[in-house]
Design goal:
The two termini are 32 Å apart. Helix 4 runs parallel beside helix 5 and helix 6 crosses helix 7. The relative contact order is 0.11. This protein has a 5-stranded parallel beta sheet. It has a single domain, classed as Alpha-Beta Barrel (TIM Barrel). With 213 residues, it is α/β, with parallel strands linked by helices.
């Protein structure tokens, strides 16, 4: 089984070779540019993970241990997230090196809680004016379990669709500050808790630091 958005070399190279590509970018820059990566980004579909996805997670683990770059895993569902964390652990990477991107797509809260308990960051993306209360609920549930410091949020602002006029309808950058934060306050969140969510958690998550078991 193949994924249409993965380059051909992804299937031919080993996890070690893929990791070396990313390590080289960290050391020398990406391609012919002077741009250096700030994170490792991978993507997997729903679990169980197919072989190439497992290889990508292993490569991310190996690259993290050399660079200290944290790992964002665009993840299909909770089962996939648990597999990602298991693979990272098998290779000596601590869960707090990992961000479970698009955790909102998994509706079973037990997976969110299980991931947070390991120390991983649970990231709820795609905040929009019409789903604010759902996201407040997601944050509240983890906060009430004692894991506010494991939550990240984002808007996925902007959206480009090939063939649509001007690339389609553009999502604004404002919902978190204009709508989501006031909704948190209305739900009883303190300013200290909001600062934890919007300032301290992202900083801790993105710090370039090797996180080993």
């Amino acid at each position: 089984m193949e994924e249409k958005f993965l380059p051909e070399y992804t299937y031919k190279e080993s996890a070690e070779q893929l990791a070396e590509r990313w390590i080289t970018e960290w050391e020398k820059g990406i391609g012919d540019t002077s741009i250096y990566p700030g994170i490792i980004k991978i993507g997997v579909d729903n679990g169980p993970l197919i072989p190439v996805s497992k290889k990508l997670v292993k490569a991310a683990a190996l690259a993290h241990l050399k660079t200290g770059l944290s790992i964002s895993g665009h993840t299909g569902d909770g089962k996939a997230a648990m597999e990602e964390l298991e693979i990272l652990s098998e290779h000596g990477v601590a869960p707090n090196a990992f961000r479970w991107v698009h955790a909102q797509n998994e509706k079973n809260f037990d997976y969110h809680l299980k991931a947070a308990k390991t120390g991983a960051f649970v990231e709820f993306d795609y905040i929009r004016p019409d789903n604010i209360q759902e996201y407040v609920g997601n944050v509240r549930k983890l906060r009430d379990e004692g894991y506010l410091n494991r939550i990240l949020i984002s808007q996925d602002a902007g959206w480009y669709r090939v063939g649509e006029p001007n690339g389609g309808k553009f999502a604004p950058y404002s919902p978190i500050l204009k709508t989501f934060v006031p909704a948190l306050k209305d739900a009883g969140f303190t300013q200290k808790e909001i600062d934890q969510l919007l300032i301290h958690n992202p900083r801790e998550s993105l710090i370039i630091r090797k996180r080993k078991l």
